[in-house]
Every structure is written in structure tokens, then in C-alpha cells.
Design goal:
The chain has helices spanning 5-8, 30-36, 41-63, 84-96, 109-116, 122-137, 147-150, 158-169, 176-185, and strands at 99-102, 105-108. It has 186 residues and is mainly alpha-helical.
């Protein structure tokens, strides 16, 4: 007798629609994205390195010292469809820890993650502890944009685009020199 895949899996992974494109700022899908995320040992190991690097720098900044190496961004590399965007969305959501909802019930992103992802290794336990610690230390700002669409002219550097989007997310003008004046006036 043949065994069906759904009989072997612990979670019911059947969805009405599987969207091949991850939308990092889509809060409507955040509940199911957190609930259905598959945390492997390799993902937990790499995510733990990233989260520890960020929290270590925040600790140094909070003490008033300058970190030896500043991580103001990271590069996730991998083949198409390997889950890079899903991982980025998950870590950002857990650090921000918003309230997520599904079918009338609401829960914090961290609590949902803890309920649906029982740690099986020490690495996974350490990752959960580090994400919890980072979420208490930081008040992150999520800035999402398509870099090619954000170019205003052919001469914009990546740094200028990031800075412009940062200022815009704070409510300042999109022209950098005006945004700097507005920031100084605040």
C-alpha cells in the first residue's frame, strides 16, 4: 500500500494558493509564513550567526563603543527557490514581533514561532533565545523596496538609494539634501 506524503508530514502544508514570490511587507500572510516555515539545522546555524552578529553590535553601541565591524546589511545567497526571502522575512518579523492574526485569533510573532517550532537541537534553542534577546534590544525599522525601481536616474549609487529610502521611511523628502536639512531641523 502506498503512503501519501501528507500522511508522513507533521504539519498540514496544504494551502489554497502558493505564491512563488515572497512579499516581505505582506502582513496578511505573516501568520501562515511563520507557522509553516521549515527550520532545518543548517538554516538555524546560519540564522544564529546573523542574529548574534547584529545583537553583538547593538550591545556595543548601547555601551557607547564603536563596533569593530558594522553590519548594516547582509547578503543572503543561494539558488533560486531555496528560501532566502522567506528566511529574511521570518527573522525580520520575529525581531519586530508584531501581532499576527488568523481566523479571528491574534498572537505575537514570537509566541506563534515558539508554539509551532519545537526546538530539536541546541542550535535551534540558541537561535530562539538570541532572537528573543534581539527583539527586546532593538526597535527595527523594515524598509522594503525594489532597487531597480528605486533608481531615480542612471547615476544613483546603491548607497544613495538606501539612504533615500531610509529618509522616506522616516517621513522626510526623497531628495537627499532636503531630507538632511529636515532631519537636522528635527
Amino acid at each position: 500500500m502506498a503512503i501519501k506524503l501528507k500522511e508522513v508530514l507533521k504539519k498540514d502544508l496544504v494551502r489554497d494558493k502558493v505564491d512563488p514570490t515572497v512579499k516581505v511587507d505582506d502582513v496578511q500572510r505573516l501568520y501562515s509564513d511563520i507557522r509553516d516555515f521549515v527550520l532545518t539545522e543548517e538554516i538555524a546555524t546560519d540564522a544564529l550567526k546573523l542574529v548574534r552578529a547584529i545583537s553583538g553590535q547593538l550591545q556595543e553601541l548601547q555601551r557607547g563603543s564603536t563596533p569593530q565591524a558594522v553590519v548594516d546589511g547582509c547578503w543572503l545567497s543561494g539558488f533560486f527557490g531555496t528560501g532566502k526571502s522567506h528566511l529574511a522575512k521570518l527573522i525580520a518579523a520575529l525581531v519586530r514581533n508584531p501581532t499576527v492574526s488568523s481566523q479571528g485569533s491574534s498572537i505575537s510573532a514570537l509566541d506563534l514561532f515558539y508554539q509551532t517550532h519545537e526546538p530539536v537541537s541546541q542550535t535551534e534553542k540558541d537561535l530562539k533565545a538570541e532572537i528573543t534577546r534581539l527583539s527586546r534590544m532593538a526597535n527595527p525599522l523594515l524598509i522594503v523596496f525594489e532597487i531597480t525601481a528605486a533608481k531615480k536616474g542612471g547615476h544613483d549609487s546603491i548607497s544613495e538609494i538606501f539612504l533615500r529610502k531610509f529618509f522616506e521611511s522616516l517621513g522626510y523628502a526623497s531628495m537627499l539634501w532636503i531630507a538632511r536639512i529636515e532631519r537636522d531641523l528635527d
